[in-house]
Amino acid sequence: MTPLVRTHILGYPRIGARRELKFALEAHWRGECSAAQLEDTARGLRAAHWAEQVRSGLAFLTVGDFAYYDHVANHLQWLGCEPARFGFRGDEPELDRYFIMARGLARDGEDPQAGRPALEMTKWFDTNYHYLVPEFTPDSHFRPGSERLFAQVEEARRLSHPVKVVLLGPLTFLWLGKEKADGFSRLDLLPRLLPVYGQILARLAQQGVAWVQLDEPILATELTPAWQAAFEPAYATLTAAGPRLLLASYFAPLAENTRLACQLPVHGLHVDAVRGAGDLPAVLDWLPAHKVLSVGIVNGRNVWRTDLDAAFARLRRAAERRRELWLAPSCSLLHVPVSLEGETALDAEVRGWLAFAREKLNELAALKHALAGHPVDWSAARAQVEARRASPRVHRPVVAARLAALAHDAGRRPSPSAVRRAAQRTRLKLPPLPTTTIGSFPQTPALRRARAAWRRGELAETAYRAAMEGEIAHAIRLQEALGLDVLVHGEPERNDMVEYFAEHLAGFAVTQNGWVQSYGSRCVKPPILYGDVARPSPITLDWTRYAQSLTARPVKGMLTGPATLFQWSFVRDDLPQSTVLLQLAAAVRDEVEDLERAGIAIIQIDEPALREGLPLRAAARADYLAAATRAFRLCAAGVADATQIHTHMCYAEFGDILPAIIALDADVLTVEASRSGMESVRAFARADYPNELGPGVFDVHSPHVPTTEDMVGLLEYAATLFPPERLWVNPDCGLKTRTWEEVEPALAHMVAAARTLRQRLA
Fold this sequence. Notes:
By secondary structure, this protein is an alpha/beta fold.
């Protein structure tokens, strides 16, 4: 019997193929675009994306995946649980409240209620997408709080195509948040939350929505018995609300939660058959025959073409046992670029190996037709998959030989941290609580135009170099005038902290328009790591050496670490992660040693993605952390004791990996801390972190400038938790996305705060 085969997606990239939403958002925040104009842009994008889904033959239009900033923040309004600390009356425009939660509100005069920090931001499971963290207290209540979702359903229904709505499941929504009061568990709020979900589902049923996808990716994590036990009664309640429910999990195997997921009272189950490939046989055994099985067979997290032959073989076995089979990407396509169509400059050979979101829809269509018994010719796709495997550009024997020759102790500094600290203090002569920044400075429109003109060949190399050196000189002069102790060159030559290095390393390709949303309007263009990695020549040396020539104060060399280069790229899937990390580390080590030979006394190797890469399943974590730690240490181990190695991490739960962070043995670690009220400092203090620590004292993702008193308060609190003689003072993250008008007063206040605390501690 041939099963009924349907295709669908869990979500689509929402920023637009040309970042249309990004530019509209930023214009709105600058006051150049009204809320009505912003909403017009959003409606146009949704309509275009739905039209693409219709053309691709998907069974449903997916509604609810669009967000102006973040889909978790959407739910704060849909569920009527905006945190009380924002003091919203309820009559403010909905978008205004939304952006205040996302970006904060500056203090206005003496009114203490006016200064409202943004919601904390952290990584969405093990991706580079950042979500806004819900805040819960024992007094948190829920109610239907927005019409936006229902209005979007009506927009989609005008296309006369079936609609599937996607919502975060109630357990995952609570799990993603944080308790903001002692003595209660956010899981206790579930009985208050479920009736509101029920009301939303009933309203969707009234609109004619037949299927609602409820995302519960926490089923791919190791849940406590209390969280596991909450699922069955919760879904028994929700199933009665009206629409058929598709439970969706992704990013890792269901493992011990497989039977639970299969037996929940829902109408269908989506499984990630890419990262959870081993789950499929058990799901086929345990999922009742009357339920729909949705198989995530196309990788929603990477950009390589699907091996359609292998995928078809797996699906055919599943189709033999199901009356109805749905095909989908493994997860939302939010994590990949929109389309290859604009990639005219991408290396033709590498381009043939790739599939972005639009191309993945075509892969689903091909598999659907084949399963339905229709003739499908995918010989061209097969040839590309085979060509990638055989390409001599993928494997470089010299790289493999270098790794094989690494000494056992190649990743070990010659002296312990206390000895190095003494040597560094003698060399650097820094004051207590030294001030610095994380590395990048604002990239003005003029700077971006100069860099773009140079790339197009419209600006001569000498003129480009003069423009970049002018930006560096400006940054150095400004930092000296502000009184910063350790300077940076500002990175004017860099488009992105990963893409810039990828452009200079063998084994990488970069795209023109391969944009992926990171958070809000912030987009990144992940490079494509397709082959063995090597560094043909120095990358940062000339710029850093020039900056250091302008000042007697130390200038940090700024590098991106191997785990971050790995996590923030689309990475090859034909080698173990540990091998690729070592290849990257060897290339970064070459750069570190060149900088040291040039007299650079402080070298920062950023690893903001270290925690992000932590596998969701505990069984895989030790191997990952060992590989990532070894790679970082390999980068730094070749320098002398008096050369100070920094690293930076941000927007992650550091407590999960503290032993690994300690094992990195960086001399100075700077971390994001202001949004969480120095929560990370408490964690490092409890772990007895042995080296120096720079907790961020202002949020770089908010346009509002905190006062000196705000920063002094944070620093004073940090000094009660961590030895002040080992504290540094810095922002949460790089300043690339801010304007000079915001950066200059913020840094001035930061320097003043450090000086104030030095006097108080003297």
